[in-house]
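Listing S7. Sequence submitted for prediction.
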Amino acid sequence: MNIEIIPLDESHIPKVKNLIAGYLNSSSNGVDESDPSPEHLEQCEQILNRFINDGSSNCYLAKQDHEYIGFIILSWSFSISKGYPVLRIEALYSSSKHRKKGVGRKLMEHAIDLAISNKATRLQLETDDDNAPARTLYKQLGFKLIQGKGVYMSFL
């Protein structure tokens, strides 16, 4: 499978809003990710526009031939204790018909390459406890589950 990884820009929004809809619906509310409503697609387009204008993270798209089949969202922070950058994987998604075909691996390898080339001290992510396919991929790529680290969030 020949997969190209490219950065998201404004010209991609009409073509990738279905991917965002798929990501939002894949684990949350059981909506068929292959047939989002026009209202939901409009919301996804608005999300993408805000994302591009925000500039705090980067999105890379997986493209095969002329079809966008997945994405990864990355953000940078800094480790004071190590004195080097940290790259966080905020989201990883491949469309349902392209799962188990190397899309997620290719996107993750791109993130690993970015982290190495920018001398990051670590690459980190979070995933749900019940997401076995993702956990398997992360382990295969050398990620380790850090025991004793909890995730705390404050929803504003």
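Caption to Listing S7: primary sequence and predicted structure tokens for the chain studied. The two ends are 42 Å apart (CA to CA). Residues 4-140 form a domain with the Aminopeptidase fold (CATH 3.40.630.30).
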